[in-house]
Design goal:
- The chain is an alpha+beta fold.
- It folds into 3 domains: 79 residues, no CATH class; 97 residues, LysM domain (Membrane-bound Lytic Murein Transglycosylase D, Chain A, Roll), CATH 3.10.350; 115 residues, Glucose Permease (Domain IIA) (Distorted Sandwich).
- It is built from 7 helices and 19 strands.
- The strands form 5 sheets. Strands 8, 11, 12, 13, 14, 15, 16, 17, 18 and 19 form a 10-stranded antiparallel beta sheet that branches.
- The protein is extended and about 85 Å long.
């Protein structure tokens, strides 16, 4: 028999199998409950058998019962109790040489840290791309390695990464939190890189969509319908930025789209930026996420200054709005 906080489990050896009975505490209140529990203990201690019954190791045992016993043993064990992470664990920094075919997710899993920790500690531009042969410095805890620049102070670093000032002081053993030598390296616990955004970044500051993805009336001839393979974003001669890290694979005039930039991204993705008034990048150039690539405009067949933006995956158009970060 087991006595749990909410129930009493009674075992009874029958002729062919072992039977169980769960007795909930709702059936026993006050003195009656105590008497029934004691009676159950006394009865089971006698191990009552019916005439002709024998209990041997060969008798079948209900698998469900065996599972419950094992589960309860595990749940009641101190081995499954909660314990706080070791805050005092000494920080260690490992070096990793990236091999061909490796990606950041695999490397992060190997060292037991997040991809953010690796990217932030090594000033990487992308979550998706890492060159073979690069040496990475990987701390043993989640956070980033930060090189102190002129004008930096610990309070400012804590505010920048929105982390606890006390944690930075304790983690680095700083005697004077008001002074950090220029060029020294600090470990900022729980910090994340600020120059990388998962997914696709809005290519322009405005998020006002003037025409969505899908079927629409031709803006120059309302009699005809056409499939709009991107979205039009209101942008009156504003800075256009790369939505994601990648390689510029096309720049120049593209028919009705006017001045256009196409960027190829790891994993078979591509983005297109049309109707630009100026292009700031060249073909073959690698650009980081958020980097300026041009200026919105009204070139090509356009009814007004805006940005035409497309996303493709493996050659197939996708609805850009689904992939753009909403914040």
């Amino acid at each position: 028999m087991t006595i749990l906080p909410n129930e009493v489990m009674v075992f009874f050896a029958g002729k062919e199998r072992l039977y169980t009975r769960l007795v909930g505490r709702l059936f026993f209140r006050g003195p009656r409950r105590a008497l029934m529990v004691l009676a159950s203990i006394a009865a089971l201690s006698l191990i009552i058998f019916l005439p002709g019954d024998t209990l041997t190791t060969k008798d079948p045992v209900d698998p469900a019962l065996q599972d419950e016993i094992e589960k309860n043993d595990i749940l009641q064990s101190r081995d499954t109790d909660y314990s706080s992470p070791d805050e005092k664990e000494k920080l260690q920094i490992a070096e990793h040489l990236v091999r061909p075919g490796e990606n950041l997710s695999v490397i992060a899993e190997k060292y037991g840290v997040s991809v953010d920790t690796i990217c932030g500690s090594n000033n990487l531009r992308s979550y998706d791309f890492i060159k073979a042969g690069v040496r990475l410095r990987i701390p043993s805890k989640d956070g980033i390695l930060y090189r102190v620049r002129p004008g930096n102070n610990i309070t400012g670093i804590a505010k920048k990464y929105r982390v606890s000032l006390a944690k930075i002081i304790a983690e680095n053993g700083l005697a004077n939190p008001d002074f950090a030598p220029v060029g020294s390296e600090l470990f900022v616990p729980d910090a994340k890189p600020q120059n990388i955004i998962r997914g696709f970044l809005w290519p322009v500051a405005s998020k006002y969509i003037t025409c969505g993805y899908g079927w629409r009336r031709n803006p120059f001839n309302r009699k005809y319908r056409q499939f709009h393979q991107g979205i039009d974003i209101r942008a009156r001669y504003q800075r256009i930025r790369a939505s994601k890290f990648g390689k510029v694979t096309y720049t120049g005039w593209l028919g009705g789209y006017g001045k256009t930039v196409v960027i190829a991204h790891p994993g078979g993705w591509k983005t297109l930026y049309g109707h630009l008034s100026g292009i700031y990048v060249r073909r073959g150039q690698y650009v980081k996420q958020g980097q300026s690539i041009g200026r919105s405009g009204n070139t090509g067949r356009s009814t007004g200054p805006h940005l035409h933006f497309e996303i493709l995956k493996s050659g197939r158009h996708k609805n850009p709005y689904v992939y753009l970060r909403k914040k």
